[in-house]
Amino acid sequence: MGEKIHPAILSGGSGTRLWPLSRKAYPKHLLPLAGERSLLQETVLRVADRAHFAPPLLVSNEEHRFLIGEQLQEIGAAPDAILLEPMGRNTAPAVTVAALALARADKSALMLVLPSDHVIADRAGFVAAVERAAVAARGGAIVTFGITPHTPETGYGYIRAGEPVAGAPGCFKVGHFVEKPDLKQAEALLAEGGYSWNSGMFLFRVDAFLAEVERLAPEILAACRAALERSVKDLDFLRLARDAFAEAPAISIDYAIMERTQAAVVVPADIGWNDIGSWSALWDIGRKDANGNVLTGDVVTRDAHDSLIRSEGQLVVAVGVHDLVVVATRDAVLLAPKDRVQEVKQIVEGLQSQGRTEVVLHAKVNRPWGSYQSIDGGARFQVKRITVKPGGRLSLQKHSKRAEHWVVVRGAARVTIGEKSFTLNENESTYVPLGATHRLENAGADPLDLIEVQTGSYLGEDDIVRLEDVYGRKKS
Questions:
Q1: Same domain, 336 and 435
Q2: CB contact set of 259 (below 8 Å; sequence gap of 6+)
Q3: 20 cis-preceded (ω within 30 degrees of 0)
């Protein structure tokens, strides 16, 4: 492959079509949807061969920074950098700021843009496609990867391959782009031939790409440059300047650059690609039983066929169902015909307009120090299970509307309440009065589990006044 290629992995987005498993605070690329590892982890491992690829640069939503950091640690990956977007502005600003960051070290570096929520079954085929694309990219082309279509898919845009690129076998100038077609048009495109699905993956030399951004979308370049120049180091992350990044138009790289540039090149590739855009897509790629069912978790079936049934905890029993999607989490259940799962996005939008917390959070909520999970609740009380990782330390905080009772179930807790600090062991408890300054820590080598009972007039998570926090979260 010659010089190393620099992956830039885009890990924003929410994946609303995969609700209730995918939530705003825990989106689909952080979930193990197609195997034991998350989609993000699989994307990072896809470019882990240091003979071909440099350490990746990630562009992430700042709300997910600790989850991403933990998942990278789990697979032993050390990124070149993690850039934090203060808000989502679509792919054109995300790719531009990554290119600017890479250009600081090498203006002619080859950058490979990869969404973090795709499945690619043929890793060797993927690397071979990148090698083909690199030839055209070194010559100044902005290369996109077109996926060989096997069905008349209406959920993807299409790319028409034009003339071959001289000296770059397997690379073609882009003839034109086609917006997501209806079924009749998609069938006509497949019958005509020469079309590929638009994958959203790109390869280019950063100086060539940034020159096109300056020519076609200078407002994006100016905003991203200012956001990067005024960025702030925060632990292992680089926070982009909020006010500057907000000035970038929210637009995709396709609309801003690819459909307007003369440098667009496409490399058709048949690599077992899937963007996991719906529950039916997961059924397509899932391991099926003798009746065509994809079953995950504690599931029992009788006379069930061609269905996807997934449980995240409780027993799910399905009798006499066909072509159905059933997804059960601790706090929500989805049932839908397989051919209508695209409508989940509209359902989520409706729930969001009602202020339903199930759109944002799972019953188990991850925090940089560990997690908490609601167990029970009612008028003036709430019960949670809290797990603190070894070395985890909650913020020094206080509440104005609730008191708390802590019972240690496993491990040893270092507790601070007011001016007192002491250790709680298994089967010991303590009380945190309303308004008292307090902190919980796990100084041991094993996880700390405790039951917290909250009592008071208001039990929302926003009744927290943080005084100190080792994770750099804002004081409130």
A1: no
A2: 177
A3: yes
Q: What 3-state DSSP class applies to 137?
A: helix
pLDDT of 2 > 70? The answer is: no
Q: Hunting for tokens 């680089």 — which residue is that? A: 238
Count of alpha carbons within 13 Å of 205, Cβ hemisphere only? 16
Summarize pLDDT for 181-190 with one digit per residue, the tens.
989 999 999 9
Question: Does 476 score more than 70 pLDDT?
Answer: no
d(CA 253, CA 12): 14
Residue 241 · residue 248 · CB < 8 Å = no
Choose one of 347, 378, 396: the last residue of a domain. 347
Q: Which amino acid belongs to residue 15? A: G
Q: Quick one: pLDDT band at residue 236, thresholds 50, 70, 90?
A: confident
Q: Which residues of 293-318 are buried (b: 16+ CB within 10 A; e: fewer)?
A: bbbbeebebeebeebbbbbbeeebeb
CATH number at residue 457: 2.60.120.10
Which residues have CB under 8 Å from 327's CB, separation 6+? 20, 21, 279, 308, 309, 310, 333, 334
112 and 224 inside one domain: yes
The reported pTM is 0.88
pLDDT digits (tens, 9 = 90+) for 94-107: 999 999 999 999 99
Distance CA 463, CA 315 (A): 35
The boundaries of the domain holding residue 231 are: 6-274
- Give the whole-angstrom CA distance, residue 222 versus residue 248: 8
416-448 confidence digits (pLDDT tens): 999 999 999 999 999 999 999 999 999 889 999
Mean of the pLDDT values across residues 270-283? 92
Tell me the β-bridge partners of 82: 58
Quickly list H helices, 112-245: 123-138, 183-192, 206-216, 218-229, 242-245
CA angle (134 as vertex; 133, 139 as ends), nearest 5: 105
CATH number for the domain that contains residue 126:
3.90.550.10
Question: Across-strand partners of 393?
Answer: 441
